[in-house]
Amino acid sequence: MSGLFAALFSVFAWIGSIIDPLCGPVGVFRWFGSGTLLACGDAGWGDEIAYGFLVTASLAIATLPVGLVAGFFIALAKQSNERSLRLAANIYTTIFRGLPELLTLFIVYYGLQILVQQLLASVGYEGPVEINAFFAGMIALGLVFSAYCSEVLLSAFKAIPHGQYEAGDALGFHRGKTMRLIILPQLVRIALPGLGNLWMALLKDTALVSVVGLPDILRQTGVAARVTKHAFEFFGVACILFLILAMISSVVFSALERWTKRAEMSR
Amino acid sequence: MSITETMIPPQAPPPAPPRPYTLSRFIGSVTLGVWLALAVGIFLTVVNGWDPEKFSRYGPSFVSGLGVTLMLVISSIVMGAILSLPVAIGRMSKNKIWSWLAYAYVYFFRGTPLITQLFLVYYGLGSFRPQLEAMGLWWFFRDAWNCALFTFTLNTAAYQAEILRGAIQSVPRGQHEGAAALGLSQRVAFFKIILPQAMIVALRPYGNEIILMIKGSAIVAIVTVFDLMGETRRAFSRTFDYQMYVWAAALYLLMVELLRNVWALLEARLTRHLKR
To answer: Which chain A residue has the Cα nearest residue B125?
Structure first.
């Protein structure tokens, strides 16, 4: 079984190396960067930066579903009839919207480390514990994203008229089915512009995780800058890569928005 | 046939049915309990780990860090507001070159992380030291504080320009025409009629922008400016006391919540003529 997974993994890695936009056979750095500091392989920093690009993109993509699901349930809690639930959800958003993202990251990173250390010490393991920076970054960014996401979704919920729920009741739907078939499709349509902004913010916040040692775009370019003393060029490349990510996202989001509004357009 | 002589005596209403114990009530109680446990836990660790010596040693540095943060945020917001006016005007200009330049500026500063821009200025401009010395600007960019101020001003100017543009364009066209009908010059019409109305629309986004700047200013700690975050990191690296982060979190939360509430009051006061 593990052999199968290893084979699958190597196939995916091979496909990834083929379509790699930066250092693949048709990559930008491969074609235009050879002979410069951005060459791929041992000659330059192209492949390191390409790896950082991958890490940044995968961190943002891995955080998105976590934050979306958590934000959805927090938004539900905020419009609940139950006072205690509303209060708990409001405390959550107040805290995580008020704290700087960097501080949240540090609190999660060091806090988790201390927590795990104490847990392991209680079962008899005494030794240095290091939390994975990717994991800590995912949790910290997920906390922040879900807090903002719940606000966006809450205002989208408020934009859906009450009659829609009553229609679900009239059709004899269960509450879950009303939510899934009637409310959610409208919710996505209304909340998409706000979620797009949040995604952009998330993408930019991933750069902070480089501070706790995640080898993302900023970290890799920073190492390159320190070694080669060409700081301006490398941080400029980092900026351009983030701009490219932002452009790709805005294209994807405008396509998504068109797709969710396709019913309105045909009218 | 009977006639009732007496009325039915007043009766107490039936007792309210007991509130059903729903799932949401259960989850609400549990999550509130978790928050309460966290608060008590943090309080207890703070009380147990309370060290007057540590407090007298790091307390003043926290206060000075708070001052640095506030100073940085206030000065960059004010200078960014001044800089944002020409950018917003350029963004709305009919001249292709100006509007394109302003758009590129805004797109760059809003599309890249603040921390990358800060590194670009602080480390990147350091590699142009001879040229900067020749221009006589090196004394400015040598200092991390100045670099942070410069970057934050440029960054917030881009965001504020977009806020301003949105607000100005939200003022109905009839207001321009009304000003023209009164024979007011473009300048007077802009500053006396358009801008005041735009400012009311822009009030809430401005508040959000200030909050974002307060939160974003934490990253200057990485380029050796000792703001609140920087002092926290220094204290933590010397004591390995997790409490330091709790204190910093409390101070940041206090700042943001205070600003949010003050802003809500301000908005209620300034828009009271719009209430119906």
So the answer is: A232
User: Which residues are CB-neighbours of B197 under 8 A, at least 6 positions away?
Assistant: B171, B175
Q: How far apart are CA A112 and CA A143, in angstroms?
A: 14
Per-residue exposure over B166-200, b if at least 16 CB sit within 10 Å of its own CB, e if not: ebbeebeeeebeebeeeeeeeeebbeebbbeebeb
Exposure string of A188-214, with b = 16+ CB inside 10 Å and e = fewer, is ebbbbebbbebbbbbbbbbbbbbbbeb
| Distance between CA atoms of residues B45 and B246, nearest Å | 10
Q: Hunting for tokens 């490349």 — which residue is that?
A: A237
Which B residues in the span 187-226 are in contact with A, Cβ-Cβ below 8 Å? 214-219, 221-222
pLDDT, tens digit, for every residue of A6-65?
777 777 666 666 666 676 666 666 666 665 667 776 667 888 888 899 999 999 999 999
Distance (Å, rounded) from C-alpha A87 to C-alpha A205? 27
Q: Is the ipTM of this complex over 0.90?
A: no
- Write out the DSSP string of B161-213: HHHHHHHHHHS-HHHHHHHHHTT--HHHHIIIIIHHHHHHHHHHHHHHHHHHH
Contact between B120 and A232 using a beta-carbon 8 Å cutoff: yes
Distance separating the N- and C-terminal Cα atoms of chain A: 53
Amino acid at site B254: L
Q: pTM of the prediction?
A: 0.87
Distance (Å, whole) CA B71 – CA A131: 35
Six-digit token pair at A243? Answer: 């701009």
- Say whether B252 and A114 touch across the interface (CB within 8 A): no
Residue with tokens 């908005």: B267
